[in-house]
Specification:
The chain has 228 residues and is of the alpha/beta class. It has helices at 7-18, 33-45, 82-90, 130-135, 153-170, 181-192, 194-203, 219-227, and strands spanning 23-28, 50-54, 75-78, 95-99, 106-107, 117-121, 138-141. The chain is elongated, with a radius of gyration of 20 Å. The protein starts with 6 loop residues before the first helix and ends with a helix. The relative contact order is 0.16.
Amino acid sequence: MLDQKPERLQKILQLVANRQPDLTVFMEDVHKPHNLAAIVRTADAVGIGEVHATFPEDVQYRGHHTASGSKRWVKTRTYESLQQGVATVRSQKMQILCAHFSEEAVDFRSIDYTKPTCLLLGSELVGVSSEAAKLADQHVIIPMKGMVQSLNVSVAAALILYEAQRQREEAGMYGECKMQQAEVDLLIFKSLHPTVKRFCDKHKLRYPNLNELGEIDDTVWDFLRKNI
């Protein structure tokens, strides 16, 4: 039973139960560290485990661009081109929503986010590129009543993603694991046994089996550990 497992494992299993593999964010040339960190943090908060990104040619991606705590739980996949990244998202049968002001744009709250969804966000200065706008299935906007015409990209991401969370919560889409078991096992292992993971990676060993409490339970691993 869940409540009989160690506290750390219980928290990981709760996280796994709330993950939304069919909801993600694609950041096109968003490169300011504080914006990247904020978007990744929000992604984790609404149950997203993987985000996508391209970066300008003069910006070299580094892991510290994402929030130090959140990056442990949210994977950032980077691409050489927008087309490559969009093709990856398309292969997962997601609708692509582009945060972009245009004649076709609709209020972000009118979208059905219970469908597999990717939110495409543009750079801090110019927003999404014209190419990204063409690749999107739908443009969405956040209604503005003041003089300014746009919000900070991380703020816009938070508003839209929390609308997605609200809809999915109402639809009962949280609380039941949708991840592949192999992904769950790896997440548990690297979270509970980071030192062992580094050891295995260094020596090119397979990861040991775990029991239902998340403890290492592997006679082959015990032998190898004693003899390396």
